[in-house]
Structures are given as C-alpha cells and as structure tokens.
C-alpha cells in the first residue's frame, strides 16, 4: 500500500481510528506524530486519531521538563506529557521515551512522585515503548 505521508509504496501500519483509511510506514508515522501502542493488540493511530491525555494539570509559570530541564508546552500535547498520578511532572515525549528505554519496565516510574502502575499504564497508552528488560 502507499504511505499517506511520504507517498511511497510499502506502507504497512494502519490507523485503528474508526473508518480511517490512513496507512503509513512506521518511521514516517513517528515523524508525523502518529502513535503506536506497544502492548495488547499493538494498535497504531494517525495524527488525527491518536490518544490524548485527559489530565487536568496547571503549570506554574514556565514549567521545565524534569529530565532535560528545558521548557515544555503550556498544556499536555503530543510532544509534552504529564504524569497522570501527580500532574506535577512534565516531560518531553523524547525525554520520557529515552528514560523508558534505559529503565525498562521494572524501574520505569514517575521521576517526581515515583508512581509506577498509573504512570506506566498512561505512558503505554500514549505510545511510549517500555521494554521488559
């Protein structure tokens, strides 16, 4: 099939959004903001149907990423994630993904409140890959 992003043949990842016809290459989707869930049915979603965070979090002035200490967006979005347990820990997607890959499932937790279960469940849902080891 043809990739809806780069228009080249060989796309194999389909959006699981209701009646969405988009098919893309995994790398193209990652660059465009598509989300692939690395658990259960391994669903993938295009940029229009990807899961979003429903966390009510309010920033105090300019909030920084807890990992890289650089500014994050003013509200949760694709590139800015918030811990669902404490709503005080803000991260860049690329920073929390790096931490997940280094920590693996046994040690991956919110760097601020140390929550494991709620935090991992939300990060999985938002497409953060957390390896078993």
What this model shows, in words?
- The chain is an alpha+beta fold and 133 residues long.
- Helices cover 23% and strands 11% of the residues.
- It contains 3 helices and 6 strands, in the order E-E-H-E-E-E-E-H-H.
- The protein has helices spanning 26-32, 93-107, 117-125, and strands at residues 13-14, 23-24, 35-36, 44-45, 80-82, 90-92.
- Strand 1 and strand 2 (23-24) form a beta hairpin.
- It is globular, with a radius of gyration of 15 Å.
- The termini are far apart.
- The model has no long low-confidence stretch (mean pLDDT 95).
Question: Any key phrases for this structure?
Answer:
133 residues; alpha+beta; two-stranded antiparallel ribbon; 3 helices; 6 strands; 23% helix; 11% strand; zinc; zinc-finger
Record the SSE blueprint.
Layout: E1 13-14, E2 23-24, H1 26-32, E3 35-36, E4 44-45, E5 80-82, E6 90-92, H2 93-107, H3 117-125
Antiparallel strand pairs: 1-2, 3-4, 5-6
Number of H/I helices: 3
**Order of strands, widest sheet:** 1-2
Strand content: 5-15%
User: In which range does the helix fraction lie?
Assistant: 10-25%
**Taking all residues together, what is the mean pLDDT?**
95
Write the element-wise H/E pattern from the N-terminal end onward.
Answer: EEHEEEEHH
Number of strands: 6
Q: Which overall shape is indicated by the principal axes computed on the Cα atoms?
A: globular
- Runs with pLDDT <50, length 5+? none
């Amino acid at each position: 099939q043809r990739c809806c992003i780069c228009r080249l043949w060989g796309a194999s990842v389909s959006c699981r959004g209701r009646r969405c016809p988009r098919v893309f290459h995994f790398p193209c989707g990652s660059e465009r903001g598509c989300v692939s869930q690395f658990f259960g049915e391994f669903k993938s979603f295009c940029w229009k149907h990807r899961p979003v965070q429903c966390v009510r979090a309010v920033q105090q002035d300019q909030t920084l990423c807890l990992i890289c200490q650089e500014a994050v967006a003013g509200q949760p979005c694709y590139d800015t994630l918030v811990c669902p347990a404490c709503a005080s820990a803000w991260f860049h997607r690329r920073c929390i993904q790096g931490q997940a890959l280094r920590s693996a499932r046994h040690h991956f937790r919110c760097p601020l409140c140390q929550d494991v279960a709620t935090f991992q469940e939300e990060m999985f849902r938002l497409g953060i890959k957390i390896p078993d080891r």
